[in-house]
Amino acid sequence: MAPPAASNTPRADGKATMTEEQTDQQFQGEIEAAIKSCPGQTIVAGATGFAAGGIVGFVTSSMRFDAPILTETPASMGGQSGGVLRPLSGLPVAEQLKYAFSDFTNVSWKTAKTFTVMNAVFIESKCAMEGLRSSIIVE
C-alpha cells in the first residue's frame, strides 16, 4: 500500500503542510542565499583557492630549479655528528621518493594556503566595494 500523498491541508495548529517539492525548493533557496552572501562567497572562494593552490603547488614543485641536489645524511646512516652532504642520487630509491614527496607536500601546502588567503581577501574586498557602492547609489 502506497503512503498517502502530502497535501496542503491545514494541520491541527492551523499551519499548512508542505509537499516534498516545496520543501526542496525552500531548501534550495536558502542554500542559494547563503552562497550569495559575503561569508558564503568567502568560504567558497577559500575552498576553490585551496584546491587550485594545491594543484599549482604540486605542479610547480616538480619544476623548481632551486631544489637542493645535495641532502644531509643523518649520523645514523653513516654521517658524522652534524651530518654529511651527499648527492640525492646517491640515496636509495625509497629515500629519494620520500624526499621528493615530502618536498611536493610542503610546497603544495604552502601554495594552497597562499591561494586561500589571496582569494578570501579578494572576495571580501569585492563584497565591501559592492556594499559601499550600493549604499552610495541608494542615498
Automatic annotation (TrEMBL):
Which GO cellular component terms, listed alphabetically, does the Swiss-Prot or TrEMBL entry include? TIM22 mitochondrial import inner membrane insertion complex
Instruction: Write out the GO MF terms.
Output: mitochondrion targeting sequence binding; protein transmembrane transporter activity
Domain of life (superkingdom): Eukaryota
Q: Where along the chain is composition biased (Polar residues)?
A: 1-10
Segments for region (Disordered): 1-24
Q: What biological processes does GO assign it?
A: protein insertion into mitochondrial inner membrane
Q: Which UniProt keywords apply?
A: Membrane, Mitochondrion, Mitochondrion inner membrane, Protein transport, Translocation, Transmembrane, Transmembrane helix, Transport
Broad class of the protein's primary localization:
mitochondrion
How does the record say this protein sits in the membrane?
Multi-pass membrane protein
Q: Determine if rRNA processing is one of this entry's keywords.
A: no
Localisation per UniProt entry? Mitochondrion inner membrane
Indicate the family of this protein: Belongs to the Tim17/Tim22/Tim23 family.
Q: How does it assemble?
A: Component of the TIM22 complex.
Q: What does this protein do?
A: Essential core component of the TIM22 complex, a complex that mediates the import and insertion of multi-pass transmembrane proteins into the mitochondrial inner membrane. In the TIM22 complex, it constitutes the voltage-activated and signal-gated channel. Forms a twin-pore translocase that uses the membrane potential as external driving force in 2 voltage-dependent steps.
**Name the UniProt record assigns to this protein:** Mitochondrial import inner membrane translocase subunit TIM22
Taxonomic source organism: Acrodontium crateriforme
